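Archive record:
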Amino acid sequence: MATPVQLKDIVPAAKNNINVNFILLEKARPAQEGQFKTCLALVADETAAVHFLLWGDECEAFERGDIIRLSNGIFSYHRTNLVLRSGKRGKAEKVGEFCKVFVETPNLSEIKWSPDPNNPEKYVQEAVLSTHSRIFPPMI
């Protein structure tokens, strides 16, 4: 596996290449999408948080507190939501539980991204839609 990056360093892209470790903080109920089950989750590391889309068996494989290693993941739009996911060639695996430092802000899924004017194949942050997840609001 390639050296993991930190969540704060990921940007939207249409190719699988993100290697990162994070903790699963919250998980929504599974939903049926065609023949596949999906489940949206909130994950974080010590630098940022992001929405993570679980597919099929991944919905049952991971629970709150699980530390997950994502290999060859993708950070892109699924319908209208910007999510991190395994994609077709990526792999998510549990590597531990409960012992990981994390922050819930910024949430990279809550940032508006735009094509880089200097390189249309890359994206840059344009604006912050919300400082935290609007799907999984922070507990007060």
The radius of gyration is 14 Å. The first strand starts at residue 18 and ends at 27. Residues 7-104 form a domain with the OB fold (Dihydrolipoamide Acetyltransferase, E2P) fold (CATH 2.40.50.140).
